[in-house]
Amino acid sequence: MGAEFVQFSLTPILIGTLAAIACALPGNFLILRRQALIGDAISHVVLPGIVVAFLLTGVVAAIPMLLGAAGAAVVAVILIEAVKRLGGIEPGAAMGVVFTTMFAAGVLILEQSDTSRVHLDVEHALMGNLESLIWFRADGWGSLLDPVALASLPDELPRIAIVCAMVVALTVLFWRWLKISTFDEGFAEALGIPSAAVGFGLVLTAAVAAVAAFDAVGSIIVIAMFICPPAAARLMTNRLERQVWWSVAFATLSAVLGYVLAGYGPLWFGATHAVSAAGMIAVVSGAILGLACLFGPHRSRIGIGRQDAA
Amino acid sequence: MSPFFEALLLQAGYNAALVAIGAALLGFAAGSSGTFLFLRKRALVSDAVAHATLPGVGLAFIVMVSLGGDGRSLLGLLLGSALTAWIGLLTIEWITRRTRLAEDAAIGAVLGVFFGIGIVLLTVIQSMSAGRQAGLESFLLGSTAGMLFQDAVVIAVGGSLTVFATWLLRRPMTLVAFDGDYAAALGYDVRRIDLLMMGLVMAVTVIGLKLVGLILIVAMLIIPAVTARFWTERSGRVIWVAGAVGGLSGYLGAVLSASAPALPTGPIIVLVAAVLFVVSLLFAPGRGVLAAVLRHRSFQARVHRRQGLLALAAQHPIREAYTLRLLAREGLVRPDGVPTEAGRAQAAKVARDERRWDVAREIHQDAGLTGRYDGVTPIEEVFTADEITEFDRRLGPPTAVGGA
């Protein structure tokens, strides 16, 4: 656990953890609102958003890509709503129509345009590349205090840190509004809380978290991070406050354990190559959810007794 | 001949023709079996099923290589993907039945986690000596390059079997899709029929992996069914219309993609289907946006016409510009708002209709009939001539408008 750890593993673990937390926080509310699949839709439209942002600006830079992806998420939400209203189509199918179409358009534009020279290929976008986010200039724990070494930290780390801080701040700031409008929209309206705006803000926050996490873990595994830790947390407690803390704990555990298992696990079995860290994080979060489904103290629906679950 | 028409007539080479026919068959199978998914309001289960095929592809490759094979046999890879897709389906079912998590959370969890397992297996395969050129990534987005005759046979046979099974199971699946409780009361095993429905979806997904890839196959299951729903109100027809929409988008998409470079087949097929969807959303008779707008306009015109004529009958001035334009166009008023001869006659008729309705609502006890009074329906459409004569007897003789 010396210089090598700091150089190769510290930043990916930090990035993975921050990404997992940034996704898990809005995930709690999405699950309670039965909107878990908005996360699915958003994560699929991140790709076209980034591609279009790249085509418009011509550079692979963080800010335009974040804006492009957030823009794509907004467009997707509006289109889903339009298809739902205009066509009288149920939400799931409306989502399916919109996000697959936008994804297909993204792949097509990517293939058509000359993006081969830049680091923007579909597989990376889908699978993520956590392992590559290493800290070249670090040579031990002392580097944490060395400004020269700190300046060479991968850009993704401050970016995801800012996004994570923003998500935490928004969650704390709008806690009461979020809580009330999630559980009882009518009551929230009666109190003068703008429910629709809160719902839209939640989706937008989820989109920003998805985009920031996308760098590290790819656009599909983000879905696991949105859903698995909060879903497992939901089976642990009946109180929203505790559920959020559980989800943060599960997210952190998934990220750290997932990275360690991916990086060092194969070596224990005598293999020479590490496996995908992003994939392993999703696997660990799934395992946690599986355990919560089997043993979580609040796993059953009200009215289903133990004998039925046995 | 342009490359597009060459491809359209299957003259653009062996491979292009194979892909076009395969895509059309796949589209038909996906459209028809996706219909029940849509009617059951579980469209996005297909998304989880599709993503859950990835670990199966990886596992099948590893198993085939460790048994000494080549690892790239399409049939073997498809069997593997079917296995994990089925496990994914059962997991969703188990989570929603045994815990308090809603189905959407279960779908998302299975989708993300199974895809994660798949990615882990792909990285394992990349580190195997046989895995460097495995090209399993092509299953993510589909790849028609180098499609073999036997691949086309797999798609053709699988697609036909799926369509046949859909046709066989259409009655119980329709019943479950519309009213699960009623189906259960009739003695159907709803859970098993749901699983069969999902089994068909899984079959289509697996067959389509090679052609459009696991992320976009979802579109082929959902978009044709949603599109077909605009054109008919009968579930029996939705199945075949959806099949036709799917088959057409598959064929046209494959043809378009063969006619120019850098047009990947999977995304083009999806975009063709999306175009058909948008056209249907806008222009379908009955449920389309244009039809709704026209319906609204015609209702608006009827209300304005009637209110305008009632105003004429009461000899009130009409100030609403739209009403005036409407009546002037029919020659019922002059541009300055003074009624013409025909206008006075129509006004008298409408005013009489209104008075008849007043009487009808006073003396008639049948709310089902008098409830149809909405201010625009002529009374002749609701009551019989005899009844109207009775209303007239109570009203007295007709009076002219404007005293002329």
From TrEMBL, chain A:
SUPFAM superfamilies associated with the record: ABC transporter involved in vitamin B12 uptake, BtuC (SSF81345)
Keyword DNA-binding: no
Domain of life per record: Bacteria
Keyword Transmembrane tagged: yes
Compartments in which it is found: Cell membrane
One Pfam family this sequence matches: ABC-3
Keywords on record: Cell membrane, Membrane, Transmembrane, Transmembrane helix, Transport
GO terms under biological process: response to zinc ion; transmembrane transport
Chain segments annotated as transmembrane: 6-25, 37-56, 62-80, 92-110, 160-178, 190-214, 220-237, 244-262, 274-296
Family annotation (InterPro entries): ABC_BtuC-like (IPR037294), ABC_TroCD (IPR001626)
GO cellular component: ATP-binding cassette (ABC) transporter complex
Gene3D superfamilies: ABC transporter involved in vitamin B12 uptake, BtuC
Membrane topology note: Multi-pass membrane protein
PANTHER family: ABC-TRANSPORTER METAL-BINDING PROTEIN (PTHR30477), METAL TRANSPORT SYSTEM MEMBRANE PROTEIN CT_070-RELATED (PTHR30477:SF8)
Family: Belongs to the ABC-3 integral membrane protein family.
Record's protein name: Manganese/zinc/iron transport system permease protein
The species this protein was found in: Jannaschia seohaensis
From TrEMBL, chain B:
Gene Ontology cellular-component terms listed: ATP-binding cassette (ABC) transporter complex
Gene3D superfamilies reported for this sequence: ABC transporter involved in vitamin B12 uptake, BtuC
Membrane-traversing stretches: 12-39, 48-68, 74-95, 107-128, 148-169, 238-256, 268-294
Keyword Ribonucleoprotein: no
SUPFAM superfamilies (UniProt xref): ABC transporter involved in vitamin B12 uptake, BtuC
InterPro entries noted in UniProt: ABC_BtuC-like (IPR037294), ABC_TroCD (IPR001626)
Record keywords, A-Z: Cell membrane, Membrane, Transmembrane, Transmembrane helix, Transport
Localisation per UniProt entry: Cell membrane
GO biological process annotation, one example: response to zinc ion
Pfam families registered for this protein in UniProt: ABC-3
Mode of membrane association: Multi-pass membrane protein
Signal peptide bounds: none
CDD domains: TM_ABC_iron-siderophores_like
Family of the protein in this entry: Belongs to the ABC-3 integral membrane protein family.
Protein name: Manganese/zinc/iron transport system permease protein
